Backbone:
């Protein structure tokens, strides 16, 4: 896929992007939580 | 010589002046010692996130680890996974909130101060400070080398001039302000880094004919892997090394685990949590932190590996063959200067300056306060002596420059992994227990801290061949580079020292808890 054949490398790219999305969603869901 | 030196020097001077002005604006707000040390605990979430990100990512990640990716391939992307999963999610959500609450309750202003106050132990404060003073200069020297290599390549001056010039720029900036000034400028520098790295990713793929074409070309280059690397387990630049081979052990245990786990117990990053006003700030910081780290490390490692395609298409050589003496730290600077237009070379110079200054300012701040507050003052005089802290910082800058001159080539990523492996082995167990145990036990913490530190140093000096050859002590004493053979000579000290220091604190803390539970019913209630 995308010129890379090693599933371990593709998994690392997938996890990097996936965890980044988790960060974004976590930040949005907890945007107003934890104040004061 | 790619760029007119006058243009580069002018842009650099304007940039540094702008940062100093921003620093001065922050400095005016630095009224109390708590302002100086933890930025008044009122920092905005965007500032916290960008400042944390800019502190975390330095020329080490971009030039040093980018160069390692050029040499060893895209397997380094596993470090990006850990940087986001552990360095952002786990660090902010699990460690960050508790650190902030405890740090503010105890009025702790530095990492050693936090350890000393939680464990009610001056030994913990001083010993933690000593580990910082001994280990962190390896990292600061590596970051200085990253900036110096780029300047040397860009305006064709000698390495010595470039290193001293770069250190002077950083010194002026760092000594000027405390953490509040640093956090303001960090956020600006983080934004500049984001722009620079985004353009670098897009420009590299455009240059090489698109994502698919570039990656396919790199995959097809697998037969060109140098014989010595192929024999050690490397299979190509878009594939993982052979499982368990010495290249695999280096990529996974030193570069990925060393830095991936090490980031959790970095004193200069833990202080960032103590600057947050409330947990809401930390929740919001996660939103920016994740994408920032992806764009920094993900781009550096991907572009690093892809430089092989560019060099092969233009010079008929792979990246490491283009680097003088095989020094992988020069690959990214050479690539930028050869492949990119002049305006981007200047922009990338500013990006690297931003990356180095934002990281070094925090590192020197951490070392200066460790030297003056935690070791020399032991908490007594710290609050009154901003001037003394500045002297401490100056001492550590000079020490770092001397170490940078003594270091060999291809050292940036290795020295960074060394420091992060040491902090993980020594600090991570005591930090985790300090934050999460109901009654953290002083004896358990002392034993863990000492064992983690001592075992890491013994393994680094005598067992791990890469580290031991840098220090040269093992060879001087025994005539051999390492006392052990493969695979143990390729295993990072962290893999041995961290489980040991963690096991010790868990066992001793368990017995301390049981002792406390047995003693509790007999004590009179008040």
Residues:
């Amino acid at each position: 896929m995308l010129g890379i054949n090693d599933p371990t490398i593709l998994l690392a790219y997938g996890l990097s992007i996936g965890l980044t999305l988790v960060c974004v969603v976590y930040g949005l869901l907890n945007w107003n939580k934890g104040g004061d | 010589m790619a760029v007119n030196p006058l243009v580069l020097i002018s842009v650099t001077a304007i940039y540094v002046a702008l940062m100093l002005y921003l620093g001065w604006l922050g400095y005016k707000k630095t009224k109390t010692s708590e302002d100086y040390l933890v930025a008044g605990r009122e920092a905005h979430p965007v500032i916290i996130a960008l400042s944390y990100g800019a502190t975390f990512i330095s020329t080490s990640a971009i030039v040093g680890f980018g160069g390692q990716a050029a040499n060893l391939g895209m397997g380094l992307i596993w470090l990006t996974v850990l940087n986001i999963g552990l360095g952002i999610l786990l660090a902010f959500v699990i460690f960050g909130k508790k650190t902030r609450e405890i740090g503010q309750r105890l009025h702790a202003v530095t990492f050693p101060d936090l350890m000393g106050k939680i464990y009610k132990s001056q030994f913990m404060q001083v010993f933690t400070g000593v580990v910082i003073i001994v280990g962190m200069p390896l990292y600061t020297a590596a970051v200085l080398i990253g900036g110096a290599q780029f300047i040397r390549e860009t305006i064709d001056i000698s390495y010595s001039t470039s290193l001293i010039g770069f250190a002077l720029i950083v010194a002026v900036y760092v000594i000027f302000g405390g953490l509040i000034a640093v956090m303001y400028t960090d956020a600006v520098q983080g934004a500049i880094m984001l722009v620079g790295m985004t353009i670098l990713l897009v420009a590299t793929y455009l240059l090489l004919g698109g994502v698919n074409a570039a990656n396919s070309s790199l995959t097809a280059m697998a037969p060109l892997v140098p014989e010595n690397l192929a024999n050690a387990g490397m299979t190509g630049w878009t594939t993982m090394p052979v499982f368990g081979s010495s290249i695999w052990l280096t990529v996974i245990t030193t570069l990925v685990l060393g830095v991936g786990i090490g980031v959790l117990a970095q004193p200069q990053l833990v202080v960032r949590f103590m600057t947050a006003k409330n947990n809401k700030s930390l929740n919001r910081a996660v939103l920016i932190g994740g994408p920032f780290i992806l764009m920094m490390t993900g781009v550096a490692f991907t572009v690093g590996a892809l430089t092989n395609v560019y060099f092969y298409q233009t010079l008929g050589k792979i990246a490491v063959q283009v680097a003088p003496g095989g020094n992988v730290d020069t690959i990214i600077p050479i690539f930028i200067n050869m492949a990119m237009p002049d305006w981007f070379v200047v922009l990338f110079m500013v990006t690297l300056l931003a990356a180095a200054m934002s990281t070094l300012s925090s590192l020197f701040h951490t070392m200066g306060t460790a030297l003056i507050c935690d070791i020399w003052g032991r908490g007594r005089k710290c609050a009154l002596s901003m001037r003394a802290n500045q002297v401490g910082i100056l001492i550590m800058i000079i020490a770092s420059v001397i170490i940078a001159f003594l270091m060999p080539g291809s050292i940036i990523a290795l020295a960074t992994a060394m420091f992060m492996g040491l902090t993980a082995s020594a600090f991570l167990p005591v930090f985790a227990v300090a934050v999460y145990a109901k009654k953290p036990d002083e004896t358990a913490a002392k034993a863990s801290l000492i064992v983690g530190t001592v075992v890491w140093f013994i393994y680094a000096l005598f067992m791990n061949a890469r580290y031991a050859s840098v220090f040269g002590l093992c060879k001087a004493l025994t005539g051999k580079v390492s006392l052990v053979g493969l695979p143990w000579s390729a295993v990072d000290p962290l893999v041995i020292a961290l489980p040991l220091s963690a096991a010790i604190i868990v066992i001793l803390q368990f017995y301390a808890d049981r002792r406390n539970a047995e003693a509790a019913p007999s004590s009179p209630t008040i």
